[in-house]
Amino acid sequence: MGYIYFPQFKKGKEGLKIHPGLTILDFIQKLQIKINAECGGVGKCGKCIVRIEKGEENLNQLTSSEKKLNFPEKYRLACQARIVRDVSDIVVYIKDFGEYEILKYGMEKEVEICPTYIKKNGKVYKNGKEIDIYREGIFGLAIDIGTTTIVFDIVNLENGDIIGTVAKTNPQIIYGNDVISRIEYVMVDKKEKRFLDKDERFKKLIEMQKIVVEMINESIKEFNNSINESIYEVVVAGNSTMREIFFLNDISTLGKMPYEPLIKESLIKKPDEIGLNINKNGEIYGLPLIGGHVGADIVADIISSEIYNDEKLCMLIDIGTNGEIVIGNKEKLLATSAAAGGAFEGVNISCGIGGIEGAIKEIKILNGKVYYSTIGNKYPIGICGSGLIDLLSELLKNKIIDEKARLKNNEFYITGDIKINQQDIFQLITSKAAIKTAWQILLKIYSAEIKDIEKIYISGGFGNFINIESAINIGLIPDIKKEKIIKIGNGSLEGAREILLCSQKRKLAEEIAKRVIHIRTNEIEKNFEYILAENMYFN
Length: 539
Known about the structure:
alpha/beta, 6-stranded mixed beta sheet, 15 helices, globular
């Protein structure tokens, strides 16, 4: 019996026994090795590229998906390369897809320090009760678990200082680049074409949760190998799916009508229940969810932006694969999510790529000539979200696409080998329309107009890097004065940090989650489909 090896990785060097019928991606997922499998392994995104150094004779022929990509010899898609025979060992190298440019910081406001854990008489106390000896300090973690990236602050709970920030790609990307792919992974056996039972779902859930927890544990160790016993409190923010996976709650209800989580309330777990290597007397707090796919990250955004305290009407926009919009003030808050898809993160765009080194992030077209800059000033390998928004805006301004989003000549070249076509434009305007329709309907329900908006807060990594003028020009965000648009950075991380430092803000988070009215725009607006279709145009 042969073995399959992945020599680039420590856990892949020992190899696994070959099992005909499995794909190379199946083995990668089993070893929990990082690979870009945005589409969840169905052969659509073309990103899970591997080189078969040895053992090609064990594999199936190139599939139709692979033939379209015109790969050099030995290159395959991991999800399409299926083992059909066992006659020799297989050696596989994974193409490096780079690290994401991750937004590490929020506004880092001054916060009142009133933590749950304090030092007293050389001991550590929680709520007036002695729980441990005092070591080198009292620390906590504020964690933002995003679909694409995970960022956490290591915070000194005695003085509020951030002593370290860790930002990494979410290792769950091997199961797909969006929450739907990950929900499907837990719910469905695609090979046998059947729904998994409760025990099978939980096993898959543990698999996905474990790689995130291991990554956090390893990152803490890399930062400071002895600090674990002095970490007592963890506050976790994330979208509904990410929070529920982390706390090992069933996510299947988020994948079927009415798309609601089983548990919306805040969660408290002990470290051994989650698997985090922190002080055994500590606790892990998960922020509450608002409803549907409007999750704990939006609760944290609301806290960090302080939209809940504003006298005048404000809007909060967090744009990602699942965009979220909040509108309101101290009197009333409405929130919704928009199924924007992954177009602005490069998914299903022929030239699209995530925010990694070499991604084109800014574009200008002057006198017919294209000017651009890339992340890390590297050779261009594709266009990320901020670049795609710029590109749409520039194509529109230069009349290369018309108001009906029709592209002249069906394709436009940015570099000698990076181009955009009409199908790409369709994907982008579909995502744009989803976001625009969501905030338009919220305004309508609120009985307000764009002119009534005093401030727009833009949260998240994607929002932080976009050009505001370009976003307004294509209709992604409302057209108000630029000085009224405030980028708050990683609002989810900032909100989690504020709650970590002041235990009283837990109550605030829970009150906000209950207070926000969750709106399903497609159910409440009878003309939803018509508005969505209209918003695909530029007018």
